């Protein structure tokens, strides 16, 4: 059973409801209690309106109790459905309707389910719920293809969840004309991260490892340093090389460090998935 959300039209609220269509499309269902098929159309429209989550206003007009109002619309038969946009009738249908026929009519004037999902995902980004927004945006990216709005939103989620390498790769794909203030802000954050993650201690360990590439202890110390400054991919690459040689290196701490990093990156992270598979192949 769907919670009743339709506005019941009458002479007093008619003008106000029509004016609402200046901002949000309004669908009016003309019905009569004595005709069960018209009540069924109301039920279908309530179901559809619930799924559109505020993108559609539903109103019903009882043509038996509101005959004067019905006459203003020139309704000739029931059920009748009329769609209003910008204060004017934009579409309609008369006669028996199925859910499919009503959805087909409304879809010409309303955002798709994917567009609604995108709007909700962008709200999550704006409210800094990056981990919740990221998987939704990734799925929508596959649906919409190259879309700078989605790409920038994904990049923001990646930067704010310390997935800097993937964020940088994604930002490289943004066309020149879409490199707006948000893009420049994300690039600036990446630059700050790079500066912070290139400490003298890290540079010293990198030089030592370059001179003695087989020194597993130095590789492990560098991996730990990388992990502390969110250089996840570099840390994981060093750790998996260590574990291929010795699964119990550093009394098992190398394996623990890697598993902790994979856990922190989460299930949806592409880099984590890549190295998780490599680790599991060694373990099992």
Poorly predicted ranges: none
Q: Overall 3D geometry? A: elongated
Broad CATH class of the largest domain: Alpha Beta
- CATH-defined architecture of the largest domain: 3-Layer(aba) Sandwich
Please write the string of helix (H) and strand (E) elements. EHEHEHEEHHHHHHHHHHH
Q: What's the main sheet like?
A: 5 strands, mixed
Helix content percent band: 55-70%
How many helices?
14
For the termini, the CA-CA separation is 50 Å
Average pLDDT, rounded to a whole number, is 92
CATH names the topology of the largest domain as Glutaredoxin
Would you count the extended β strands for me?
5
Which structural class should the secondary elements be placed in? alpha/beta
Radius of gyration: 29 Å
Strand order of the largest sheet: 1-3-2-4-5
Strand portion: 5-15%
Q: How many discrete domains?
A: 3
Q: CATH superfamily membership of the largest domain, which one?
A: Glutaredoxin
Protein name: Co-chaperone YbbN
GO cellular component, one term: cytosol
GO molecular function, one term: protein-disulfide reductase activity
InterPro entries: Thioredoxin-like_sf, Thioredoxin_domain, TPR-like_helical_dom_sf
Q: What's this, in brief?
A:
The chain has 284 residues and is an alpha/beta fold. It has helices at 14-20, 36-52, 67-73, 99-107, 113-126, 130-144, 148-160, 164-171, 181-196, 200-211, 216-228, 232-245, 253-265, 270-283, and strands at 7-8, 26-31, 57-62, 80-85, 88-94.
Report on the structure:
This protein has a five-stranded mixed sheet, sandwiched between helices. It has three domains: 7-108, Glutaredoxin (3-Layer(aba) Sandwich), CATH 3.40.30.10; 113-197, Alpha Horseshoe (Serine Threonine Protein Phosphatase 5, Tetratricopeptide repeat), CATH 1.25.40; 200-283, Serine Threonine Protein Phosphatase 5, Tetratricopeptide repeat (Alpha Horseshoe), CATH 1.25.40. The longest helix has 17 residues, at 36-52. Helix 5 (113-126) packs antiparallel against helix 6 (130-144) and helix 10 packs antiparallel against helix 11 (216-228). The protein is α/β, with parallel strands linked by helices and 284 residues long. 61% of the residues lie in helices and 10% in strands. The two termini are 50 Å apart.
């Amino acid at each position: 059973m769907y919670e009743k959300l339709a506005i019941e039209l009458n002479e007093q609220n008619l003008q106000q409801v029509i004016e609402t269509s200046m901002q949000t499309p309004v669908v009016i269902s003309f019905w009569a209690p004595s005709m069960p098929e018209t009540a069924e159309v109301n039920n279908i429209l309530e179901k559809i309106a619930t799924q559109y989550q505020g993108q559609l206003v539903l109103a019903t007009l009882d043509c038996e109790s509101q005959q004067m109002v019905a006459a203003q619309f020139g309704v000739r038969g029931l059920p009748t459905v009329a769609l209003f946009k910008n204060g004017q009738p934009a579409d309609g249908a008369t006669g028996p309707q199925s859910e499919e026929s009503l959805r087909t009519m409304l879809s010409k004037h309303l955002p798709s389910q994917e567009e609604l999902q995108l709007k909700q995902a962008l709200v999550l980004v704006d409210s800094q719920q990056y981990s919740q927004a990221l998987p939704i945006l990734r799925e929508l990216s596959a649906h919409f293809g190259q879309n700078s709005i989605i790409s920038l939103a994904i990049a923001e989620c990646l930067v704010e969840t310390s997935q800097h390498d993937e964020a940088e790769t994604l930002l490289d794909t943004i066309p020149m004309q879409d490199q707006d203030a948000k893009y420049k802000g994300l690039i600036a954050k990446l630059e700050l991260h790079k500066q912070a993650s290139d400490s003298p201690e890290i540079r010293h360990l990198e030089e030592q490892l370059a001179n003695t590439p087989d020194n597993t202890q130095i590789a492990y110390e560098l991996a730990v340093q990388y992990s502390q400054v969110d250089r996840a991919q570099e840390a994981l690459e060093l750790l998996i090389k260590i574990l291929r040689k010795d699964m119990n290196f550093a009394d098992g701490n190398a394996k623990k460090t890697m598993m902790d990093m994979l856990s922190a990156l989460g299930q949806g992270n592409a880099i984590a998935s890549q190295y998780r598979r490599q680790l599991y192949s060694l373990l099992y």
